[in-house]
Amino acid sequence: MSVRIAIFGGTSAIALAVARRYAAEKARIVLVARDAAALERERADLSVRGAEVVSLQADFTDFAALPAVARAAWDAFGGLDIALVAYGSLPDQGEATASARAAEQALSLNFTSPALLLGELANLFASTRAGCIAAITSVAGDRGRQSNYVYGAAKGGLQRFLEGMRHRLWRDGVAVLDIRPGFVSTPMTAHLPQGGPLWATPDAVAKDIVAAIGKRRAVLYTPWFWRFILLIVSFLPRPLFHRSRL
Ligand SMILES: NC(=O)c1ccc[n+]([C@@H]2O[C@H](COP(=O)([O-])OP(=O)(O)OC[C@H]3O[C@@H](n4cnc5c(N)ncnc54)[C@H](OP(=O)(O)O)[C@@H]3O)[C@@H](O)[C@H]2O)c1
User: Fold this and answer.
1) Domain span including residue 198
2) What is the rounded distance in angstroms from the CA atom of residue 195 to the CA atom of residue 207?
3) Per-residue pLDDT band at 144 (split at 50, 70, 90)
4) What is the residue with the minimal CA distance to atom 18 of ligand 1?
5) How confident is the model at residue 1 (pLDDT cuts 50, 70, 90)?
């Protein structure tokens, strides 16, 4: 039978690049996102590419609804082989430090909501003792930096959550993948100056994600060189690190 994958944040450029790769293998895909028109457009596109697609509209900021969202995605094809949690936003660090409300929104969308959803998915996957749960965090979660520590804290928190979930689900045979991309050209980063060797396309990152899911990897830096960049950043001594504008 073809693979069953649910994508939460089904309008994300990275997630859609992943979905197109699974569509080419005739996968059954559940796309979950807030924008009904965009969902319909992407459902039609993935169907043409060979997938069987169910779309579900959901508000990821409505925490009380998250258990039902996870359950509806699970039930769409009678269970799942893969779940990918991909939604998020890149807050303006200046706003997030000036306004507790802005910080709360960024922390809610990038940490609390995905953590609660992942918790629900963990219970569902544990019941069948198989499959892979993946979530997109970020290299920004590896070390707190002055330029984006609100976003970085949310993503770093999610990294720890996934680590604990992986430990818990290991006995159940469920793989948990923490995806840490560097700079990717998507609508989220459209306001930043792009280009150069550090920037990747969504499809290049998607190729790595699909391979890492297939190999049941625990942590993926994508593209690969970010593992070494972050190794250096993580071990920079504080006196040096604090003088940097990172
Ligand atoms: N691009 C990068 O450089 C980069 C680097 C590291 C990690 N990431 C992570 O990769 C993931 C995917 O992002 P992307 O780069 O593919 O960006 P994207 O194309 O802009 O996708 C962002 C996704 O998050 C959803 N979203 C944003 N705000 C939301 C809200 N308030 N409520 C519900 N959904 C919301 C968007 O839904 P709508 O379409 O409805 O807005 C969309 O599905 C994110 O978790 C991001 O943090 C990205």
Assistant:
1) 4-243
2) 20
3) very high
4) 12
5) confident
For range 6-30, the mean pLDDT: 98
In ligand 1, which atom is closest to the CA atom of 140?
6
Distance from Cα 166 to the centre of ligand 1, integer Å? 23
Cα angle 211-209-222, degrees, rounded to a multiple of 5: 110
pTM of the model: 0.98
Q: List pocket residues of ligand 1, CB cut-off 6 Å.
A: 9, 11-14, 33-35, 38, 60-61, 86-89, 109, 136, 138, 181, 183-184, 186-189
Residue 137 Cα to ligand 1 middle (Å)? 11
When divided into structural domains, the chain yields a total of 1
Q: How far apart are CA 221 and CA 225, in angstroms?
A: 8
Which pLDDT does position 24 carry in this prediction? 98
Mutate to test the pocket of ligand 1, among 84, 155, 188 (most ligand atoms within 8 A of CB): 188
Pairing type for strands 28-33 and 4-8 reads parallel
Per-residue pLDDT of 54-68, as tens digits, reads: 999 999 999 999 999
Tokens representing 245 are: 């504008």
CA of 26 to the centre of ligand 1 (A): 25
Distance 188 CA to ligand 1 centre (A): 6
Q: What is the CATH number of the domain that holds 71?
A: 3.40.50.720
Amino acid at 130: A
Residues 6 or more apart from 215 whose CB is under 8 A from it? none
Enumerate the active-site residues. Answer: 151
Q: Can you tell me the distance from the alpha carbon of 194 to that of 183, in angstroms, rounded to the nearest whole number?
A: 9
